[in-house]
Design brief:
heterodimer, A: mainly alpha, Rna Polymerase Sigma Factor, Chain: A, Arc Repressor Mutant, subunit A, globular, B: 335 residues, mainly alpha, 3 domains, 60% helix, 0% strand, elongated, disordered N terminus
Chain lengths: 179, 335
């Protein structure tokens, strides 16, 4: 969005549809990717839920574009945690069923699923905190300070976590090449 | 993999440790300067950033945006909590939204503000001390009760304690038989008889009895003899008996020597009062009232007898007769 961000933000606050379209275009891909990488059952639905919360909280938001992105992923992270808790609660009440995924398009679905599956497997080798840090830094593109704010940790802790995660990913990559 | 997830065998798989700047380059999908050994990892992370990205359908974006805007205006009834933090307790439990009713908040706030001041603390401490003292008195049964004075016009003198405290001195001075400073026998021994021979009504009286039983017996005999007041000798003996009793009650020092009715009534009431203060039962109050009436009725007779004593014993003088009179007053109910 760049320099036009304040104008877009002001227009979105008064309910301008074009402003919301711009905002959504700028954040939807990252939010959905982050939620999908985290293993959300329905990333698209959860992304729409994130947008709802953004609309409700936008009148109270103050900040620049970087702060806006940090806030967006903070909402997304909390929605993700809520969705996981909801799934755990539902799993206790009903028989465990495989996560339902929306039917992908036939052309791109195969590649996407393969890429997702590969990365899901690699990310599964990380701890939860390491996975959060890596995805927020790589997929969401946030700096370490904002990641620390979202996760409620110190910046030093985030750097330690990302260092260990990178080391782990490099080891996995080396092991895959040698195999 | 032999290492635990996430911790990695850093030294076994990397030639050099990653610096913070190098990690930032890698996470951005770039190869750190001078670290060509990390180009594979950089490309790998670059693929991660795009692996989960999906092209957003413009139609879908428009639909979601309109839907979000519409629902936001319809459902913007949250209670002011920050949207980003309202739905998750990831960083700890959320504070309780509910609390005291609003109408109670100002009252409690004002009370807390008052108690926070020094004056408030003083008042609170005073109230606490008062409550504690009252509760203690109530627990021990020492709360002051209402005194039913049958004759408000008569002064009540509480001389029971003094009579007991001075009992030792009275015993020592018993032999002297000093009749000049005594007019009434306000001893607890006599009190017991006044309220109906209730021994339990006067513990001090019992102690005095133990000290000087012989004197008491002699007092009673001589008092009976003094009731008759037939001759001067008997009056003298009554004088002696009265003096013995009076020694136990220094309070009688304040009694007028003329032995009028008021003084006699005072003494009688004082005797009753002493009885009332001797840890007697509350039921004794009624007896006291009755006794007071009896005492008042007997005062007339006592005065008459005093007059007789005065007439009979001119040698002993008025004070001697007063002593006899007082003893009469006290001992009258016994008869």
């Amino acid at each position: 969005m760049g320099p036009a961000f304040p104008e877009i933000l002001a227009a979105a606050r008064v309910g301008a549809e074009w402003a919301w379209e711009r905002l959504y275009e700028s954040i939807a891909g990252g939010v959905r990717g982050y939620l999908a990488a985290q293993g959300a059952a329905d990333p698209d639905d959860l992304t729409g839920e994130v947008l709802l919360h953004l609309v409700r909280g936008l009148p109270r938001f103050e900040g620049d574009e970087a702060g806006f992105r940090s806030w967006v992923f903070l909402v997304a992270h909390h929605r993700l945690i809520d969705e996981r808790r909801r799934r755990q609660r539902d799993a206790k009440l009903a028989t465990k069923q495989p996560p339902t995924r929306p039917a992908p398009d036939a052309d791109t679905a195969v590649l996407d699923i393969e890429a997702d599956a590969e990365w899901q497997q690699r990310l599964a080798g990380l701890t939860d905190d390491q996975r959060h840090v890596i995805l927020l830094r790589v997929v969401a593109g946030l700096p370490a300070e904002q990641v620390a704010h979202i996760l409620g940790k110190r910046v030093g802790t985030v750097r330690v976590l990302q260092h260990r995660a990178l080391t782990r990913l490099r080891a996995d990559l080396t092991a895959g090449v040698t195999q | 993999m032999t290492s635990s997830p996430g911790n990695g065998d850093e030294m076994g798989t990397t030639d050099q440790r990653l610096s913070i700047e190098e990690a930032d380059h890698l996470l951005a999908g770039r190869v750190p300067p001078g670290r060509y050994d990390l180009d594979g990892l950089a490309a790998d992370l670059a693929s991660l950033s795009t692996a989960f990205h999906h092209e957003v359908d413009p139609v879908d974006v428009r639909r979601l945006a309109v839907q979000a805007a519409a629902q936001a205006h319809l459902t913007s009834s949250d209670n002011g909590e920050l949207t980003a933090t309202s739905a998750s307790n990831a960083h700890g439990p959320a504070s309780q939204a509910s609390g005291l009713p609003k109408r109670r908040v100002p009252v409690l706030t004002s009370i807390a503000t008052f108690l926070a001041t020094t004056a408030g603390k003083v008042v609170a401490a005073g109230a606490l001390v008062a409550a504690t003292a009252t509760g203690g008195l109530a627990a021990t049964g020492n709360m002051p009760g209402q005194y039913d004075d049958p004759d408000p016009g008569v002064t009540v003198v509480d001389d029971s304690d003094d009579a007991v405290d001075d009992s030792d001195d009275a015993v020592e001075a018993d032999d002297t038989c000093d009749t000049t400073d005594t007019a009434v026998s306000g001893t607890c021994d006599d009190l017991a008889g006044t309220v109906g021979d209730d021994d339990d009504a006067c513990e001090e009286g019992d102690e005095i009895d133990a000290v000087d039983d012989a004197d008491e017996a002699r007092d009673a005999d001589e008092a009976d003899e003094a009731d008759d007041a037939d001759d001067a000798d008997e009056a003298d003996e009554a004088c002696d008996g009265a003096s013995d009793g009076a020694v136990y009650a220094p309070e009688v020092d304040g009694v007028d020597a003329d032995g009028d009715e008021a003084d006699a009534t005072d003494d009688a009431d004082a005797t009753d009062d002493a009885d009332a203060t001797d840890d007697a039962d509350e039921a004794d109050d009624a007896d006291e009232a009755d006794d007071a009436e009896v005492d008042d009725a007997e005062v007339d007779d006592a005065d008459d007898e005093v007059d007789d004593a005065d007439d009979a014993d001119e040698v002993d003088g008025a004070e001697d007769s007063d002593d006899s009179d007082a003893d009469e007053v006290v001992n009258a109910p016994q008869g």
